[in-house]
Amino acid sequence: MGVALAVVAAAIGYRALDDREARPVAGGEEPAALTIEDLQRRADAAPDDSVAWQELGFARYERGEFAEAVTAYARATELDPDQAILWSALGEARVMASARDPLPVEALIAFEQALKIDPDDPRAGYFLAVKRDLAGDHEGAIADWLALLAKTPPGAPWESDLARTIEQVGKVNDIPTEARIKAAQEARGGTFAAAAPAPAPTLAAAQGIPGPSADQIAAARTMSPGQQREMAEGMVASLESKLKANPANVDGWAMLMRSRATLGQTDLARKALADALAANPGAAQRLRSEAEVLGIR
């Protein structure tokens, strides 16, 4: 994969939803008590047991073995095609297994199937909002995420990550979200657990250049490496311009540092750190932690 496509594929952190609480457990055993080899043997020995394949898919995903997770979840959906959670898990695994496209068609098909079965499936709803964000409809994506937040039970595993996504996409695209997040809180009732600041390693690893359009993603597949890089540098320049207008956006500076580092522009990554520190002395520790994760000194 060309470096520019690597940057495009890192446009957003996707692991916002977690199905641990919703998963059935095969044979009454906790998955943590079983090794990958145990789970694989169990699935192979029970080829028609959808729960065994689901547990294997979950374990493969947790180990970062995304292609293998796709295989396991695909088998689970074949055996139990009426479970929305299996389709949305398959879609997420396909996203993570994709080397080029941040939202491959096969993943979208799985998410859409999940929503046909359960229109309230949170993971599928989240990713279809990601689709809108990648296509440049940032306002529409935020509206969808806010609707999802309004239906999210207080304390759900993905609650803080979802709120953080809304905040960060709003900051990068100059869309106010604070009052709207509060309204989502009031709409659902109960106490809202405010999004905790993202740990430095998570942000640096998961965020990159925001918002390539669907046309840009499609065009990148036919570009030469030089053209791909030119497209990526244009996205970085756009982010940098937004930071000049809003230098208090610490998340944006972290994204710029990562983008420069990904493009191999070490000196410019250091300059981004220096500019970020000058504009945000109160966030110096956070910014230096971000830089350290990226190897910027």
From TrEMBL:
<dbReference type="InterPro" id="IPR051263">
    <property type="entry name" value="C-type_cytochrome_biogenesis"/>
</dbReference>
<dbReference type="InterPro" id="IPR019734">
    <property type="entry name" value="TPR_rpt"/>
</dbReference>
<keyword id="KW-0802">TPR repeat</keyword>
<feature type="repeat" description="TPR">
    <location>
        <begin position="50"/>
        <end position="83"/>
    </location>
</feature>
<protein>
    <submittedName>
        <fullName>Tetratricopeptide repeat protein</fullName>
    </submittedName>
</protein>
<dbReference type="Pfam" id="PF13414">
    <property type="entry name" value="TPR_11"/>
</dbReference>
<keyword id="KW-0201">Cytochrome c-type biogenesis</keyword>
<dbReference type="GO" id="GO:0017004">
    <property type="term" value="P:cytochrome complex assembly"/>
</dbReference>
<dbReference type="InterPro" id="IPR011990">
    <property type="entry name" value="TPR-like_helical_dom_sf"/>
</dbReference>
